[in-house]
Amino acid sequence: MSFVTSHMSISLDGFVAGPGQSEESPLGIDGMKLHRWHLNDPKHQVDQAFTDRLLGPRGAYIMGRNMFGPVRGKWGNSDWRGWWGSEPPYHAPVFVLTHYPHDPITMEGGTIFYFVDGFDAALAKAAEAAGDRAIDVAGGASAVRQALQAGCLDELVLDLVPVVLGSGERIFDDLSELTAEPVEVATSPLATHIVYRIT
Amino acid sequence: MSFVTSHMSISLDGFVAGPGQSEESPLGIDGMKLHRWHLNDPKHQVDQAFTDRLLGPRGAYIMGRNMFGPVRGKWGNSDWRGWWGSEPPYHAPVFVLTHYPHDPITMEGGTIFYFVDGFDAALAKAAEAAGDRAIDVAGGASAVRQALQAGCLDELVLDLVPVVLGSGERIFDDLSELTAEPVEVATSPLATHIVYRIT
């Protein structure tokens, strides 16, 4: 089975996205504050190292539908192809969680979006696609929470950003138990990066 | 004005105490899980350094009433003198927040518990007592939240413990804004210690 990772930026009050996510505001109100550390240019050297880690090659990805796009319910005639332009940064199969069927979408650079109903089904397909390479649960909050609840994560990297959002989406709710060990830590002024091994 | 610090152990899901605090369970259900890093013996060297920092001398302390003890409402004939035996680890004046008057309690080793109505009044008295030495807001959640809301904290040290509690007391709720910068970080397997400068 592939090594399964997730890498999430999170506020001091535990939110990985702000409230009110929409096409205009995909990360919710103030959600962009969580991502300055890897969007700023030039970057602090610590943030650069964790940006490289975030973008590092994976064999497959799992992604929640809300992270893929703002369309809710049935897809209808939507031609939405993700937030990332013609060449998304994944360069691998991305399994998007949705209850509504959708044909695969082939993008430039090796990214193919597949649409799968249910986390376990997506994990099985991702494992098949990834072989011995790692699978990343890219987000958002609900997908990572499902991964934690399923107990399938081997590694969780948190970028703890020193802001409060007040409301939004949390990843650690409704977890009966989690046993993790921090194995690596580094900080910049914009984020404290902690690598957890989930045991 | 004194440098004002606080040092709190916090779970991944943001709780500094579990639910159901009582005389039998002062930290709430599973709350003790947050404090293994400084209660274990022997300690990891990183945890020892932050234990020393936690216990480091201060000119005065501010403490919420629920941290002082399990008595609620009027003090009545309670002879409660804190959780810490005859010689508490504070060795300085401790200003306990309470709406109910109570005579000061002098303990061994220099700790005197004073009882004050309102955070601002407690801060003024602590500043007077501390002179140019630091004031520590010792906890619990409500007292630290009041300090954050009042904007009086200069430094916040978090010991981020890799467990989830599911419910309990949070410190970052109901904060309109917080601007902090991590200036120091170190980890042991039991806790990731982050020193924030509040700006």
Give me the secondary-structure topology:
The structure is a homodimer of 199-residue chains.
Chain A: E1 4-11, E2 15-17, H1 36-39, H2 45-55, E3 60-64, H3 65-68, E4 93-97, E5 105-106, E6 112-116, H4 119-130, E7 135-139, H5 141-150, E8 155-161, E9 169-170, E10 180-187, E11 192-198
Parallel strand pairs in A: 1-7, 1-8, 3-4, 3-7, 4-6
Antiparallel strand pairs in A: 2-9, 5-6, 8-11, 10-11
Overview of this protein structure:
A 9-stranded mixed sheet of chain A has the order 5-6-4-3-7-1-8-11-10, with helices on both faces. A two-stranded antiparallel ribbon of chain A has the order 2-9. The radius of gyration of chain A is 16 Å and the shape is globular. The mean pLDDT of chain A is 95. Chain A has helices at residues 36-39, 45-55, 65-68, 119-130, 141-150; strands at 4-11, 15-17, 60-64, 93-97, 105-106, 112-116, 135-139, 155-161, 169-170, 180-187, 192-198. The first copy, chain A, has a single domain, classed as 3-Layer(aba) Sandwich (Dihydrofolate Reductase, subunit A). By secondary structure, the first copy, chain A, is of the alpha/beta class. Chain A is built from 5 helices and 11 strands, in the order E-E-H-H-E-H-E-E-E-H-E-H-E-E-E-E.
